[in-house]
Every structure is written in C-alpha cells, then in structure tokens.
Target: non-specific serine/threonine protein kinase
Amino acid sequence: MTTTDYATPQPARSGAVGGRYQLLEAIGSGGAASVYRARDTVLGRDVALKVFRAESVVADELVRQEREIRMLSGLQHPGLIAVYDAGRQNFDGSIRRFVVMELVSHASLDKELERGKMAPHDVAGLGAQIAEALAYVHEQGVVHRDVKPANILIGDGGSAGFRRRAKLGDFGIAHYLGGHRMTSDGTILGTAAYLSPEQVTGGEVTPASDVYSLGLVLLEALSGVQEFEGTVLEAAIARTNRDARIPDDLAEEWQLLLGAMTSRDAKERPSAAEVAAILHGQPEPEFTGTGRRAKGSRLHRRNAFHGLRSRRRRNAGLGVALAGIVAVSFFLGLWLGAALF
Model:
C-alpha cells in the first residue's frame, strides 16, 4: 500500500467504528481498500483498520472481501499480520466492510529498495522469515499469489535472533488450494513483475508459485534491480521466454538457491519450508521436491549460510564467532558451496 492524500471516511452517526475504534489518520491506500491508524478505545491500543472502498462493492469483490477476512482470521503466525476484528459500518451513507489488524509500523520492502540493494545477511534473514510464513500458509492450504516487496513489511525490531523483523501482508487475492476459482477465465491476478510463469499462462497455481515470486524478491534485494521490467504485458511474458538472470558476482550458494527458486518448471523449485531451512542454515536431510536427483539421494548440507547463522547467534547474545568455510552441499542436483559472505 502507498501513502496518499485522501479524506478519512466518517461513520454516518457520530461515534467509533464498530462501537470501539476511533479513526486517527490515513496511513495507506490500495486498489480496493484504505488503511487507517485507529484507537481501540476498549483495550487502549492503536490498531490498523482496513476499510474497503465503496466503489468496490460489486458482487465478485464482496465475495473476495469476505473470503480475505475469513482467511486472515484463521491464520496465526509471527510472520503474518494478526487480525483482531471485522464488521460492517455505515461510512458517509454507504455500508462498507472493515477489518481490524495488528498495527505494524514497519516500512515496506519496496521503500527500502528505493535506497539500493541490501546486504546479503539482511536478505537471508528477511527471506528466512517470509519463507517460514509462506510455509505455514501453505500448510493451511493457502497460496498467497502476490508475494512482492510492497507486501513485505520490515523493521528494526528483530526477534528470534534476526536483526530485522519481517512480516507478509495483503492476502487480498490469496486462495485456498483446490478451492473455487474467484476470477473469470483469463483473468490474471498478481503483480506482473513478480508473477510465476504458470500464473502468466493460466496454469495451475500452487505453493511453488509463491516460492518463485519470493525468489524474484530476494534477487531484487540482492542486486538492487527488478528482474522483469517493462509494461505489464512485457514483464508478464518475459518470464515465459527466459530464466531469471542471476548476477555472476553473487556467491555461488545464492546463485544456485535463486536459480532453483526461479526455475520455470514449478516441480524443480524447493518448498517454502526448504528455502527457510537453507536460509536459516539448518540441516534439511531429505528434499521433498522432485528435483533432478536420483531416487534415494539426500540433500547433505553442513552449515549453509554460515555467516547468517553466526550473525543470528551474535544478535541473540550467544557470542559465537565465525569459524570455518561453508561446506559443499547438494541441492536439486546442484552443489551448494561458496560461503554467503
């Protein structure tokens, strides 16, 4: 969402939204809704209150709003924005849906990237947290479908040993695996620059689609350049004709991981859980994707992303010093080697 100038809607009758939320200021705006800082007068805390636009109340959009609210209320994870409440309110004479969420004062990743590329250890920490959130979402049978920098919030309040905290937001076009298709045939949902090839071609959208999009986000964070630029049509079609270009100056381990995540063949991509394990530097004894490995072969990694793990330990107060060189690892039939830093 982007900050903009617009009037704060007011309840038709004086009083707080839903009888308890006092609107304070506008903090963001998107295509179908606006977000406000509000005061919960019952619990005495500030919250984010998302109000869907009056002009978006066509039948399909109403169904999508209800679906988003139900979906968000059922998802609870540190890497996701928490949902507290939801309801309907008469704003300026029109009945509109609202949802009350955790107020996250972080900046979005797209704003961070306006200042240039990020340090590899920051990208690894951010990627691990978002991959963990996606792994949880996928376990619940949900595909996000719009993983992009604008939907990733980051801040300096680290946790679990990470220097910076990351959260994934905006489930407006997410859907349940195997669920009813919410758009007309031929409609492509998502942001063109980060769509997976199968989203562009109208193929089956699976958790692997989110992994592809996250791969493009991490690549952009490391290189400072959006991989697929141009018009919406140009950006969407480009990925069906070529692979993402991974810079040669990135560490080999990054090259191999990003290459796997952005494979045009969805079956060649690692799962979000496997990406999180690699970025965490944790052993992952068995790769569950199809990959290119022979039957029965295992993914042997020792101290992957050693530099990140050492930083995380220092941040957590364990005082562990950097030691040794990252060992050669086997991932998707490719050797993961070369230290991240």
